[in-house]
């Protein structure tokens, strides 16, 4: 296991472990389990009318009469068999008026609803890994306590807290895994680490334990293995770069390289593209993002409703509880594995196509289920096959919705949008929990509800959902606003002039440089730049037109008479001054004398006025030399020689300064 596969496998294992904890959403099927029939102590066997053992009609005939043909004892054992000792069987809470409305599954979904409101926003603000880790750390003790208490009210409270933790492991954990796994292996790896595998593992735990408290303890123990793995892994570099934490992102990528066992070329300064921050308001203002956002919300709502109506009411798809639940997970797991392995070769099978195809199969299976219920074929192979395929197909729609969300929403708001979408799904799940009463009154109504919503959904997805296969999640919905060059502390690319920095080399004062270095190498490919330019054109801000200034009235300005006369006099005076200056200049030019200087080849003409000025300076220096001058100790031979030559004929060097001033 080498290369980037190593990290992908680690992320896959981590996600599968936390899915075992998240499968507490499905474990409510076992917690709420009640047999369809039961027998009293005096061997009166009856069919339950609800999930309460005392809710039966005593006037109904005994299912195992005394004068029956065959073995009455075997009949009593069959109708009194309890496949799983559930919390509902222990507490019998559904016999009360309040708990008939507020089911155990209801409070768990309320917890996930509350968690999604908060945790997605916190994950976008404080990081994926941080919230992911805290969710697992908070959820495992709540799971252990819920299996230890003996009071039904406290039990319901801790099941609500477990729901809050599950929202973190599902929503934030899925976002973290998607951002860490290589894009080209995304669907293939999730074909091996997925929800149906967690379902089958949970069914296996329940089958071995045969009792709800022991199964809960085993699930908590396995889930705790995620904590050291999360502690060891780095934060998502995609999130760090989006939050302008480029130095931390560089360290995270080096950590990923060490985990993967691969090395990549780095530069002391590397180029990155700075993007404009995306807010929920901008999603609503952008037509393309808004359409994708609204479609994802509707998909999550109605798919969650359909999946949980099918799942929560499927405990009796076979007489054996474990067989039906295990088959449902097995069929879904096999379907996801086949899809994941064939996806690289089926180039036309994107998220949208996968969703539409799966939804169509689910609609056909719902129709078959309704037909079987009307023909009283419940319990037959046809009913079992239609039910398991319907559940598997509808769950694949949910996986396609997950992938569409993370690939169509910008990084800045991905976890927030994921939380909002999961809120919509939990609303659908809560509505699904309230449909359980229809199972005892008119069961086909459950699947008529699914048919209506799924038919509407398949039409809307066909016309409105955008394809997102192999999307570059860093570029989704982004508008580039400039380039940033982040400093890489440790490594220099091979072939550059600057050597790697050692411990003796001082570190730079600032880890962030906003000037383009010579060895800068862009981290953005040509394809990404095309996406940026396309998004820039689409997301270009509308600039308000400036308000035109009022034009001043044009016309001659009236000047008072005294001021006008003064201006005219000043103009006449200035004209006379200019004429005088021009006359004087011509006179001076005519009086120039020729002064020879020994420069080798050059003769310089010096004005007469300048010669007179030089002679005056010469005389003053001579007087100073005779009367006031005293030699300085520091005077050298060259200075003395220059002083002695003052009385001689001036050289070009002596008058060079004056010549330059004259020429100017």
TrEMBL record:
One of its GO terms (molecular function) is transmembrane transporter activity. It is found in: Membrane. One of its GO terms (cellular component) is membrane. It is a multi-pass membrane protein. Residues 10-469 form the Major facilitator superfamily (MFS) profile domain. The keyword Transmembrane helix applies. SUPFAM superfamilies: MFS general substrate transporter. Residues 493-505, 619-637 have a biased composition (Polar residues). Keywords: Membrane, Transmembrane, Transmembrane helix. Residues 492-512, 547-664 are annotated as: Disordered. Gene3D superfamilies: MFS general substrate transporter like domains. The chain crosses the membrane at residues 12-31, 101-123, 130-149, 155-177, 291-309, 321-341, 353-377, 445-465. Residues 547-556, 565-599 have a biased composition (Basic and acidic residues). This is Major facilitator superfamily (MFS) profile domain-containing protein.
């Amino acid at each position: 296991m080498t290369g980037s596969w190593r990290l992908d496998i680690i992320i896959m294992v981590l996600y599968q472990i936390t899915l075992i904890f998240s499968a507490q959403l499905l474990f409510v099927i076992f917690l709420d389990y009640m047999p369809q029939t039961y027998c009293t102590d005096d061997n009166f066997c009856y069919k339950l009318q609800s999930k309460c053992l005392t809710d039966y009609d005593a006037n109904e005939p005994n299912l195992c009469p005394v004068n029956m043909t065959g073995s009455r004892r075997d009949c009593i054992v069959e109708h009194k068999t309890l496949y799983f000792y559930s919390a509902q069987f222990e507490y019998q809470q559904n016999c009360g008026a309040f708990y008939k409305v507020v089911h155990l599954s209801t409070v768990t979904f309320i917890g996930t609803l509350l968690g999604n409101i908060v945790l997605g926003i916190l994950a976008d603000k404080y990081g994926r890994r941080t919230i992911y880790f805290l969710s697992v750390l908070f959820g495992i003790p709540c799971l252990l306590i819920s299996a230890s208490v003996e009071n039904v009210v406290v039990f319901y409270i801790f099941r609500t807290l477990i729901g809050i933790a599950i929202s973190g492991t599902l929503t934030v954990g899925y976002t973290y895994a998607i951002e860490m796994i290589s894009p080209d292996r995304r669907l293939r790896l999730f074909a091996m680490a997925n929800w149906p595998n967690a379902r089958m593992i949970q069914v296996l735990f329940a089958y071995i334990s045969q009792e709800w408290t022991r199964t809960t303890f085993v699930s908590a123990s396995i889930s705790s293995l995620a904590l050291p793995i999360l502690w060891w892994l780095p934060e998502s570099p995609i999130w760090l770069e989006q939050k302008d934490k480029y130095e931390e992102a560089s360290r995270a990528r080096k950590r990923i390289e060490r985990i993967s066992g691969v090395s990549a070329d780095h530069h002391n300064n590397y180029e990155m593209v700075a993007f404009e921050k995306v807010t929920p308001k901008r999603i609503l203002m952008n037509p393309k993002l808004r359409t994708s956002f609204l479609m994802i919300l509707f998909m999550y709502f109605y798919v969650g409703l359909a999946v949980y109506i099918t799942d929560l009411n499927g405990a009796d798809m076979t007489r054996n509880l474990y067989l039906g639940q295990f088959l449902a997970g097995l069929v879904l797991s096999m379907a996801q594995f086949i899809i994941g392995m064939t996806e690289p070769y089926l180039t036309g099978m994107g998220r949208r196509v996968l969703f539409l195809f799966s939804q169509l199969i689910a609609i056909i299976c719902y129709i078959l289920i309704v037909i079987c219920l009307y023909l009283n074929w419940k319990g037959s192979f046809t009913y079992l096959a239609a039910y398991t395929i319907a559940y598997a197909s509808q769950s694949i729609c949910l996986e396609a919705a997950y992938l569409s969300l993370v690939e169509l929403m910008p990084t800045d708001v991905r976890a927030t949008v994921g939380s909002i979408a999961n809120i919509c799904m939990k609303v659908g799940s809560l509505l699904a929990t309230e449909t359980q009463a229809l199972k005892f009154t008119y069961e086909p109504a459950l699947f008529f509800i699914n048919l209506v919503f799924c038919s509407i959904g398949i039409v809307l997805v066909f016309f409105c959902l955008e394809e997102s296969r192999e999307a570059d999640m860093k570029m989704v919905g982004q508008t580039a606003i400039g380039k940033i060059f982040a400093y890489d502390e440790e490594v220099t690319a091979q072939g550059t002039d600057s050597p790697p920095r050692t411990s003796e080399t001082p570190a730079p004062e600032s880890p962030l440089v906003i000037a383009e270095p010579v060895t800068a190498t862009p981290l953005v490919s040509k394809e990404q730049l095309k996406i940026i330019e396309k998004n820039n054109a689409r997301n270009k801000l509308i600039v308000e037109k400036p308000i035109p200034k009022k034009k001043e009235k044009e016309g001659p300005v009236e000047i008072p008479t005294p001021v006008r006369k003064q201006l005219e006099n000043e103009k006449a005076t200035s004209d006379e001054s200019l004429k005088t200056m021009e006359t004087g200049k011509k006179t001076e030019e005519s009086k120039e004398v020729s002064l020879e200087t020994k420069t080798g080849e050059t003769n310089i003409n010096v004005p007469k006025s300048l010669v007179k000025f030089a002679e005056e300076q010469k005389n003053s220096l001579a007087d100073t030399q005779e009367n006031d001058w005293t030699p300085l100790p520091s005077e050298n031979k060259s200075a003395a020689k220059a002083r002695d030559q003052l009385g001689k004929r001036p050289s070009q060097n002596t008058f060079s300064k004056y010549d330059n001033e004259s020429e100017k």
